[in-house]
Structure formats: C-alpha cells, structure tokens
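Sanity check record (used in CI):
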Amino acid sequence: MPDALDPSPYDALLLLSFGGPEGPDDVVPFLENVTRGRGIPKERLKEVGQHYFQFGGVSPINDQNRALLDALRKDFAGHGLDLPVHWGNRNWAPYLTDTLRDMVRDGHRRILVLATSAYASYSGCRQYRENLADALAALEAEGLELPRIDRLRHYFNHPGFVEPMIDGVLESLAGLPDDVRDGAHIAFTTHSIPISAADTSGPAEGHGDGGAYVRQHLDVAKLIADAVRERTGVDHPWQLVYQSRSGAPHIPWLEPDICDHLEERHAAGVPAVVMAPIGFVSDHMEVLYDLDTEATAKAAELGLPVRRSATVGADPRFAAAVRELILERAATERGARVTRCALGTLGASHDVCPVGCCPARAPRPAAAGADSPYA
Ligand SMILES: CC1=C(CCC(=O)O)c2cc3nc(cc4[nH]c(cc5[nH]c(cc1n2)c(C)c5CCC(=O)O)c(CCC(=O)O)c4C)C(CCC(=O)O)=C3C
Ligand SMILES: [Fe+2]
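Expected output for Coproporphyrin III ferrochelatase:
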C-alpha cells in the first residue's frame, strides 16, 4: 500500500455540478431552475427545451458526473487518499442542499468543493458560490450546525486538465481525411457570456478587455495549439470562438459564434476545422447539441469537414489532478509550503476568490470566497 496521504483539515470532497434532466418530464422544471430570475427570452427557452427533447429529455451530464465520481474514488483509493466524495448539483437532483444536509448529518465539518467549471466568470464561478451560500442558508434555517466550505482553485491550466484535451485534438486531426488534415484550423470553443460579464471576470485588477475569462481560455488554447504543433510538426492556425449564446439580442455577448466562424473559414478556403470545446469539463448537452448537432450540420451544409474533440470527462489524469489540488490546498491550510502546478503564462489561480471577483449584476451572498458571510 502507498503511504497514506493527508487531506486534513478537510474531511470530505463535494463534487458540485450544473445538473441536468434525466427524462422528458424533467426538462421544463430543470429549465425553470436554471433560468429563474435570469431574464432569458421565452423563445430561447422553447428552443433549448427542444434540444433536450431531441435526446429523449436526458442530459448526459449526470452520467458523466457519475463516471467522474467513480474515477475520483478509484484514484483516491489507489493512492491512499482517504477522503469521501459526495455529489450535488445546482439545478437538478441530487440537489446541492440535500447532499450538503446529508454530509453535515454524517458529521463532515470541513468540506472542499470541486466545481465542474474550470474558468473564472460570474456563471462559472460566483454563481456556484452563490448556490453554496443558498444551501448553507437553508441548512442554517433548519437549525443544523454549518460546516466550513472551501472551493478548489480554478484548474483550467493544470496539466491534468490540459493534457487530455491535447490528446483529444490530436485524435480529431488524425480522424480528418488525409488530404485536408495538414490544412485544418482549430476552433477552440467556450460558452459565450455577456461582454460585460467577461470584462468583470476574475479579480478586479484584471477587469476589462474580456477579463480573466477570455485570458484564461486564450492561454489554454495556445498551450494546446503549441503542443499539437510540437507533436505533429504542423502549425494549425487557431482561434477562440464561442457557442451556446442565450439572453436578449440587444445585449452584446462574446463573438464570433462557432457557426459563423465555420462559414467564414470555409469562405476563406480553409479545408477543415477541428472544434475543441475547451470551456467545458464534459461532453454535456452544450457540446452534444450546439457542436455535434448544430455546428456539425452547418459544416455539412458548407461541405466543410469537421471533427469535435473530446472534453476531459472522467480521464484518469484529471482525477489525479484533483487529488493533487486537494493535497495542495490541504497543505496550504495547514500552513505548509507547496508547489502550485500550472502550465502557461498566468500561473496558478487564487485559492480564495477576492472581494469583487466575478461580481453579480445584483449582489447576493456567496460562500467560499473572501466576501463570504460564512466562516
Ligand atoms: C460559462 C458557462 C458555462 C461553463 C461553466 C460551467 O460548466 O458551469 C455553462 C455551462 C452549462 N450550461 C448548461 C445549461 C444551460 N445554460 C443556460 C444559460 C446560460 N449559461 C451561461 C454560461 C455558462 N453555462 C449563461 C451566461 C447563460 C445565460 C443565462 C444566465 O445568465 O444565467 C441555460 C438556459 C437556456 C439557455 O439560454 O441556453 C441552460 C439550460 C449546462 C448543462 C448542460 C447539460 O444539461 O448537459 C452546463 C454545463
Ligand atoms: Fe471568481
């Protein structure tokens, strides 16, 4: 047996994810949960509902989280890390509040959160923290003693997140027809968000010009493109583009959209495109519908060969990265000096979101940050 690894002061890991419907009857209530108070046009909701119905009302995200749970437990057991792993979602069962209640009743006092969102932004960071605060408030109202909750730092530039995506892009290139492979461009995609949200993503000192959200994605894109060039000897031109835009049309969101980008590349004579969804942790509905269905249909219409590269999902290298991040944070909490592993130019992200990081339009309590009202 390997030497036991020390996760103290933490006594549990909570995998915190988005959640998704698991059957047709779940779709509308799930969308109501997601969009409550977000001002999304009715037309857009009808359209997104259809994406889910087209897949039998089942989002792949829950099974992917089950696979990630298995991968984490296997990795921890194999390395002598004795830390129970629980799972709760923001928008569908198992709901965060229910999971957290069970954890508190099981006696957990110091909980570390792994969010299935790798980058900064209101939607990808603070909103998760707001939902953690909501869950703590609910448990407080039930008279339960509240645990202390910390969240693992953003892992977008951790090798365990980046390396599986490099393999994914290499695999997609290999899958293209021989005569177009070397000329292929890479379209790195992520979720479009309002430009105002991008500009205020991350800590205040980096606000403006797309903020941490755009900078972090550009750093990952460049890492992958550089690694692909090194391994294939071919310089594939690349660009960061966006997908899954929602919201009112008069509000500016990050562009270009992947479909417009495919059209533009095709018109410019580019012979093939690999779509690499670096903004997402798993092949969930935004990937299966917006890329594999919609963008792939657009490419077929253009006669443009495309491939979509795999997300990280339950890759064992990602599970190992999570273990390293847990041990890194635990050691930091114990006052030890640790190496903080990160690729690229930005360095390891902060452990605790500072005040003013990824602000909300309408301020609400958020846990696990410097502005948390909870201990
Ligand atoms: C940055 C970001 C991520 C990546 C980080 C992360 O992973 O957290 C992400 C992930 C996801 N988004 C998802 C689903 C949805 N997102 C929506 C709406 C929105 N997302 C936004 C941003 C993001 N979203 C924003 C700015 C909105 C507009 C409304 C608002 O300002 O809040 C809507 C409403 C309908 C629509 O308009 O699309 C749905 C249904 C699912 C589940 C997929 C599945 O079921 O498999 C996942 C993983
Ligand atoms: Fe943040």
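The chain has two domains: 12-155+314-333, 159-308. If this sentence no longer matches the regenerated tokens, the check is flagged for review.
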